[in-house]
Design goal:
two-stranded antiparallel sheet; alpha+beta; 2 strands; transmembrane helix; transmembrane; rod-shaped; 4 helices; membrane
Amino acid sequence: MMGYVRRTKAVAIDLNHASPNYNFETARDSYGLEKSDPTQRNLFIKVITISNPRSCIRETLVAFVIIIIVVVVVVVVVVVVVVVVVVVVVAVQLVVVIVVVVADVKVVVVVVAVVVVVVIVVVE
């Protein structure tokens, strides 16, 4: 199940203030406490596993936000790459047309320089 989180938590139980039917003998039998250890009579720690709904919701939302951010970044990168490719293709075609139509070398050099500057500005 997505977002299902299990946590381990230490819980201290004071048997002096526990319910009357929850005595040391019950705790010892349930959790394997040693009867010879006097420190375990009044206070012992049991490790329980709990489900934390708030943590489940938070971690699920974080996962969705990360997925959305990754998708947006990928879309932006793809759009930028497509725009750069289109600009380069158009610039190359423009240079080819100018070279074919105009035989003057000076005009071709100026147009190529302008196209290169435009491509650099668009890429940056």
